[in-house]
Structure formats: C-alpha cells, structure tokens
C-alpha cells in the first residue's frame, strides 16, 4: 500500500482531513477495534479511502505527528543530482528580439542563484542576436549560451527541444526556468519528457530550500482558488514556467560583465518535421494582452458591438490592452484572442479595469491575480465587486467617456 | 482518418475552494465534467471523421467514475472509448500521465491524428499534450485555432495537415506530416449538443477498460514512482485587499479614478 497511516502515531486530530483536496480521509474507528474506551478519541484513527486518494501528498506535511507515510520508489530518480549546478533561464526571442518575459525570469533567477550560491545563465537560440546577448548580461546573466542558426530563427518545437535537451545534458543546470508563454508551454513540456525531469507549470512564486538545494514552486490550482507548493526532490534540472508579469524585469546595468559561450550544432538536431509557413500578427493595438501592464475589459454590459469603442478609447488613452469577457466574445463583439477567463487567457496586469462585466467565476479565474482591479457595473450585486479593489455601481455609458476624456487631458499635460 | 482524442474528467473547478474560516476545502456538490477545452477536441475529431471517414476513439485516464465522461463523448459522436484506470496510476504527475497515455496510444497503434484540449481546467498545466507527442516522438502543434487543410502530398502520398496556431500576437500557419498531435483552443469550433441517437448509443456503448497490464509499461514510470514532482503544501491564496466602493457624481468618480490610475501606473 503506497500510503499508510501509522496507527500508533495518529491522534485523530483531523488536520490531514482538512488539507485533503480529494475528500479521501475519514476519522473512523481503529481497524482492529481495540483501543482504550476511556478517551472518546483514542480509538479513532485517520483512514484513507484509496478509491479517492490520488497520492498527492498534501496530508503528509500537514500531519504534526509524522503519522502518514507515502512510499515512493526512488528507482525513477537520477543517480547523482549533486552534479547539477546553476540556474538557467530560457531567453525567448521573437523576430530576433528577446522578450520581456526573459528579463522577468532573470530577476528571479538572480535571487534563486544567490540562495544556491551559484551562477545565472541565459540560453538564447535564434539567428543574428549579437545585441540581444549583451543585454542579457546587462540584465544579470553571468553566462549566456548562444546558438545562432538560420533553422532556429523562429521558434519550432522539434529543433528547439532537441538543442535545449542536448545543452541541459551537457551543462547540467539544477534549475531551468521558462516563460509560461505560447512558446514556453509547448517547448518545456516536450523537453521535460525527453530528459525525464520534473516540471511545474505557471508558477507565481519560486523560492529555495537552501539545506536541500530544492526549488519550491508555488502555483495556483483549481483556477486560482487553491495554491500548491511543489517540489522535485530526485530529478534535475528542476524545471518551472512562470507567467507574464509575475516578477519585475531585471534592471539593466551596462557595467555588468559576463561570459558568452557560443555553441555549435549541425545536422539532424536542427531538423523539423513540421514547417512554419507564415507568422501573422493581427492584434491591431501594439499591446498584447499577456504582456500588458493595464487591461481595460468589456462585457455583456456594453450591450452591442459598436459600444466596445468606449472600452477601446479608454484603453488607447491609457496605453492599455483590450480584454473581453466570454459573453462579449461569444456574441461576436470581440475576437477570441481578447478573451480573458477559463477558456481564454489568464492575465495578471498591474491594473485591470472591468467595464460591464458581471464577474462569472469563469472570468474571475482568468484575472483575479491582477494587482489592482477596478470594476464598473450597474448591478450592485455583481460578483465582480467581490474581487475588485475599487468598485463603482454606475453607468458605463456615462463614466467611460468622461474618464477617457479626463485621462487624455491628464496625459497631454 | 483515425483520430484519438485524449480527455480528462475534472471537477467543475469553479466550485472547489477553501473555506477561509475553517481552512478546509469546500467540496459539497462539486460536479464532474469533461474538461472544457476537451469538448472542442472531441468536436474537431468528430468533424474530421464526418469529412474524411474513419473513427474517433476517446481515451482517458482516471478513476472508474471517469467512465461517465467517456459516455458523454460517445453521445457527441465518438465511436470508441477507452478508460485507463488502475491503482498503479494514482499519484501521476504530468510526466507519468503522458507516459501512460502514450503507452495506450501505442497499443491502439492505428491512428493518424491525436487531439487534446489546450489544457485541463483543474491543473492548467498544458503539459500532457506535448508530453504525449514527446513520448511517441511525433510532431506537435499547440494552441490550434483552425485546421486549414488535410491532404495527401504528392508524389510521396504522405498525409499532411496545415493548421493555424494561436500566439500572443496573432497566429502562425504550420504544416506537419501525420501522425501528429494537436492541442486545440476554443476558437476552433462550436461543439454540438448530443443527438438523440448519440444519447442512446452512449448508454449502450461498451467502454474498454485497460490497466497497466494492457499497456507495455514499466512500474517505475507509472503513478507516484514515475512522477518527479510532488505536492508539499496546499493553501488558500492570500485574500485580496478589501474592496472599496466609490460613489458620487460622474465628475467626482472620474477624479477618484484618475487618482487611482495615476497611483498604480
């Protein structure tokens, strides 16, 4: 039995039962029926329902009496994890430009590396990247591993996976970070399988257990209603992806020095069975939703497609991106690429302004980690007000144009 | 055109939360549903079958009650369904899950296309789709919003697919030989409702059950043993700062909003 309650240690305190996400633990009479009758609790013990238990492990650290054991075969682990050193950041580039997410990762990587007393390295794949390499050093990379090949000019799953897996096997970093972007999420999942490493997706916090040299990755689960901290004890590298805007960008210091290591691979490792035929940029405003500092979002309360102009005008005045609720997208008022929520995008800008959005839970899970939320809605009972820092019960058709006008004046000054 | 669609039964996540007073999970009345993104994967599979012939097989890994998700998929037009259920699979993280599903797909053997939803709504990892493709060593395209074309390439006769892949800025057009794995987003289609015929079929359909014995799997790669990651703590997100309701005249409200916006940016 992989999970076991040590009956002698269990006090039926119910702590385990409270943390079990799967409702798999009950306090029941001790299986053998013995136990003193003097204390009503002493013959009660925690019992795990194996049909419900997924062995997630949440109960083990919750037990103050070390009464729950989960046995895990260590056979799957790698022989010598102590040979793995250093914190690596995948420096995602598009059209030859390193993306801001790489600088956000570098700021965290520096902290993690300091805690581990090791170095930060960036790895950059692409074509004609000289200036970009320098910037990664200025932003805090001690080393930059570079591979410049025409085949790598644009992201493609297979060659990027092959090259990175090769570099990881060659240099053995202990931590590998990557953006939770449309590129990062495709790439890193493939690499993790290829090198049999542990991977934690969409982390919102990363820390180090110094004693065990372990990465503690914290991420939202169940649509952000629950946070989980995840470790990867026996495999290296410990891989994690981080969403846009979770960490601040590392500052640029042009005095910083670092080493550039040029790699060279050729042949089959660069080949791809799938072919990228074209790249089409279609979002008219230059700000994309995932990377925006401010998002102005509209919902059903706008009543018609043409009224979305009110949201777009305010977004323009603020230099913000335009978001939309599912209702607005399903009504055909905005394209799907603007949808925020469970079946759309998850965003966490500095400021989210929700206009005429009631705040169905499916919307909230996509935006509730925004730093500041302003909600304007005519319904005082709209659930959006529960997550908003500032709420206004009012008419968006009056407030939005007035606010846009005022912001234009303020910015002109 | 034989298609395998991988789905996951998830709790209607939106209802799972931690009670702040007692710090316990509130789970009363949490329904199980097919992961929302997987509904688009099923629909796309069924549409391709209707155009090109062949069949759609639904594959899921989960506890015995996940059978109801498979029956629902059959009511939507799928032909066969396989449930991978075994205590040996418990505790699987995304690496072990993709290993197990890939093992089942190898056993099914005859397939042109694998379709998954972009991600599952309970874990949100988006790792299992690409993980399966990596285990099977086939090409993948993630975030697919449209299948433009499937054709036989001359002179080789090799089947290729051309799709649109959603990115942060727009989309990419990608061509891949088959077999390949796609993960799909909501924009790809509007899923149908079950037909009466489908509902009857779903009640009668035989669901195939497989355990670790049915797939060629090493125990060290399954379940907890095959999972490098491990949850050490589960807790409630920090509560938001309490909300402040603003009121007053339009001019007054606008003044206040401008002050807040200026402070935050």
Radius of gyration of chain B: 22 Å
Apparent shape of chain B: globular
CATH superfamily of the largest domain in chain A: HUPs
Strand elements of chain B, count: 15
- By DSSP, the count of extended strands of chain A is 22
Helix fraction bin of chain A: 25-40%
Major sheet description of chain B: 9 strands, mixed
CATH class of the largest domain in chain A, please? Alpha Beta
- Fourth-tier CATH superfamily name of chain B: HUPs
> Cα-atom Rg of chain A, whole angstroms?
25 Å
Q: Taking all residues together, what is the mean pLDDT of chain B?
A: 91
Count every helix of chain A, treating DSSP H or I runs of 4 or more residues as helices: 11
Output mean pLDDT of chain A: 90
Q: Overview of this structure, please?
A:
The complex is a heterodimer of chains A (413) and B (265). Chain A is an alpha/beta fold. Chain A has three domains: 71 residues, Alpha-Beta Plaits; 190 residues, 3-Layer(aba) Sandwich (Rossmann fold), CATH 3.40.50; 124 residues, Rossmann fold, CATH 3.40.50. Chain A is 26% helix and 26% strand. Chain A starts with a strand and ends with a helix. Chain B has a single domain, classed as HUPs (Rossmann fold), CATH 3.40.50. The N and C termini of chain B lie far apart (53 Å). Chains A and B meet through helix 1, helix 5, helix 6, strand 11 and strand 13 of A and helix 3, helix 4, strand 9, strand 10 and strand 11 of B. Strand 14 of chain A pairs antiparallel with strand 14 of chain B, so a sheet runs across the interface.
């Amino acid at each position: 039995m992989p999970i076991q309650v040590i009956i002698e240690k269990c006090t039926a305190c119910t702590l385990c039962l409270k943390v079990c996400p799967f409702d798999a633990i009950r306090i029941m009479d001790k299986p053998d029926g013995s136990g003193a009758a003097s204390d009503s609790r002493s013959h009660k013990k925690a019992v795990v329902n194996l049909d419900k238990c997924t062995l997630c492990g949440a109960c083990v650290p919750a037990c103050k009496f070390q009464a729950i054991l989960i046995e895990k075969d260590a056979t799957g682990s790698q022989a010598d994890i102590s040979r793995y050193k250093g914190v690596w950041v995948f420096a995602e580039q598009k059209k030859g430009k390193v993306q801001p997410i790489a600088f956000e990762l570098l700021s965290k990587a520096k902290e993690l590396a300091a805690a581990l007393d090791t170095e930060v390295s960036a790895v950059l794949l692409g074509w004609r990247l000289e200036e970009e390499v320098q910037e990664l050093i200025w932003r805090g990379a001690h080393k930059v591993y570079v591979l410049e090949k025409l085949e790598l000019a644009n992201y493609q799953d297979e060659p990027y996976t092959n090259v990175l897996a090769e570099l990881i096997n060659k240099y053995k970093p202990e931590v590998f970070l990557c953006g939770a972007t449309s590129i990062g999420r495709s790439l890193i999942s493939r690499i993790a399988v290829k090198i049999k490493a542990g991977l934690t997706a969409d982390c919102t916090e990363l820390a180090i257990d110094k004693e065990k040299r372990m990465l503690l990755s914290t991420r939202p689960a169940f649509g952000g209603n629950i946070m989980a901290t995840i470790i990867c004890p026996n495999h290296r590298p410990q891989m994690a992806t981080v969403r846009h805007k979770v960490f601040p960008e590392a500052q640029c210091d042009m005095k910083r020095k670092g080493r550039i290591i040029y790699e060279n691979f050729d042949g089959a490792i660069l080949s791809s069975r799938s072919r990228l035929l074209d790249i089409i940029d279609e979002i008219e405003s230059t700000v994309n939703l995932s990377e925006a500092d401010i998002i102005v979002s509209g919902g059903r309360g706008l009543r018609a497609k043409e009224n979305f102009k009110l949201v777009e005008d305010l977004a323009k005045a603020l230099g913000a991106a335009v978001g939309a609720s599912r209702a607005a997208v399903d009504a055909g008022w905005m394209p799907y690429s603007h949808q925020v929520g469970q079946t759309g995008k998850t965003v966490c800008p500095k400021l989210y302004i929700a206009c005429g959005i009631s705040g169905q839970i499916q919307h909230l899970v996509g935006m509730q980690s925004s730093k500041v939320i302003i909600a304007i809605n005519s319904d005082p009972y709209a659930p959006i007000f529960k997550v908003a820092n500032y709420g206004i019960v009012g008419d968006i058709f009056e407030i939005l144009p007035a606010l846009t006008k005022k912001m234009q004046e303020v910015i002109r000054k | 055109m034989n298609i395998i669609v991988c789905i996951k039964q998830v709790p209607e996540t939106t209802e799972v939360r931690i009670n702040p007073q007692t710090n316990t999970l509130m789970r009363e009345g949490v329904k199980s549903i097919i992961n929302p993104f997987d509904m688009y994967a099923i629909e796309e599979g069924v549409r391709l079958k209707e155009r090109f012939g062949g069949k759609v097989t639904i594959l899921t890994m989960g506890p015995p009650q996940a059978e109801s998700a498979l029956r629902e998929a059959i009511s939507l037009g799928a032909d066969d369904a396989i449930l991978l259920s075994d205590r040996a699979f418990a505790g699987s993280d995304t690496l072990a899950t993709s290993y197990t599903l890939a093992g089942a797909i190898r056993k099914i053997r005859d397939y042109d296309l694998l379709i998954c939803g972009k991600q599952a709504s309970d874990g949100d990892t988006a790792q299992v789709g690409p993980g399966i493709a990596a285990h099977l060593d086939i090409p993948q395209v993630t975030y697919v919003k449209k299948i433009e074309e499937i054709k036989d390439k001359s002179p080789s006769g090799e089947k290729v697919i051309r799709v649109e892949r959603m990115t942060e800025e727009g989309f990419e057009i990608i061509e891949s030989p088959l077999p390949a794995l796609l993960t799909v987003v909501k924009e790809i289609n509007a899923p149908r409702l079950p037909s009466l015929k489908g509902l009857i079929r779903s009640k009668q359909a035989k669901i195939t059950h497989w355990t670790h014995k049915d797939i060629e799997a090493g125990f060290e790669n399954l379940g907890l043993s095959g999972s490098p990651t491990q949850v050490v703590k589960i807790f409630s997100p920090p509560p938001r700062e309490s909300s402040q309701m603003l009121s007053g005249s339009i001019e007054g409200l606008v003044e206040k909003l401008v002050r807040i916006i200026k402070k935050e940016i």
